[in-house]
Specification:
The structure is a homodimer of 173-residue chains. The first copy, chain A, is built from one helix and 17 strands. By secondary structure, chain A is mainly beta.
């Protein structure tokens, strides 16, 4: 029996750079529009879905809350499209990713704590765990790819491998 | 001096069909995913931004609140791209639209009350007033078109024309 303990680190653009974009208003390109009545925080993620057969899909995901520590079970990737998750509640959430490659390497997993008011955009082919909502059932706006083409790979962790995701401890970040 | 008084009607997909999509979880195509932990409300809007020079932009708009009645001043349209507005607060908002055509006809304006948990997607070329937030400064996730090409027309109402937008009165809807 192998066991891996994953402790989330705080999400930052630098730490997440190999996996995609951090979506946030802080540091964004701000533009005053509509005769001064609105500020546009412009172009927050590299949406990568519009190949010749692809089109952007807007969906809402409603995720059940999990208890931590959580035994992770599944990693997935979208080989031909990016995927945005933007939280519609004020709850933080957790993401777990692994570097690109033919399959996710258990020793290569990283977990990130995503603070309220922040989203992520997984770059194409980045391995990630399905949505992990804490505290309460939570909704997320999702922008990913629709259209023909193979856009989902899934890999389950072996039964004899426990990958345990723990809660975020700000004092250790 | 000409005066037009606009009274919002409740947003419904049928009433809004000529202008674009109502984005809502009610009535959506629901799919259970991620081994039963998540429900996907699938493909909620016809995103129409990915022509040969276009790409999807994700931005956040922060709109100042207005006082009603509001004298409307400006209509705009995006001739080569759709535009999603999804509210990130629990506040309702108002949209004002006019039928497609070379310029918005003042007598042809319609106003809609968008209840909390609901968004809109303006179809390309649909005339609409800039974002109208009530009650409090509010944030919206916006998905529109980036890339080269002429994608903004604006028309201001004449000084001698007062187009007054009133609050939504549910008892009259």
């Amino acid at each position: 029996m192998a066991r891996f303990d994953l402790h989330p680190e705080l999400l930052t653009p630098d730490a997440f750079a190999d996996y995609g974009d951090v979506i946030a208003m802080d540091g964004a390109d701000k533009r005053v529009i509509n005769d001064g009545t609105t500020i546009r925080y412009h172009d927050l993620a590299k949406i990568d879905v519009a190949d010749e057969n692809g089109r952007p899909l807007v969906s809402i995901f409603r995720a059940s809350a999990v208890q931590l520590p959580l035994r992770l079970w599944l990693m997935e990737r979208h080989p031909i499209g990016s995927q945005v998750f933007w939280p519609l509640s004020a709850e933080p959430f957790l993401v777990v990713v692994a570097s690109a490659g033919p399959s996710p390497n258990t020793g290569d997993l990283r977990a990130f704590h995503v603070p309220p008011g922040t989203g992520v955009n997984y770059a194409r082919s980045v391995w990630h765990h399905p949505l992990i909502s804490m505290n309460a059932t939570s909704d997320f706006m999702v922008i990913d790819r629709g259209g023909n083409g193979h856009n989902l790979d899934e890999v389950r962790f072996p039964d004899d491998t426990d990958v345990m995701l723990h809660g975020y401890d700000a004092s250790k970040s």
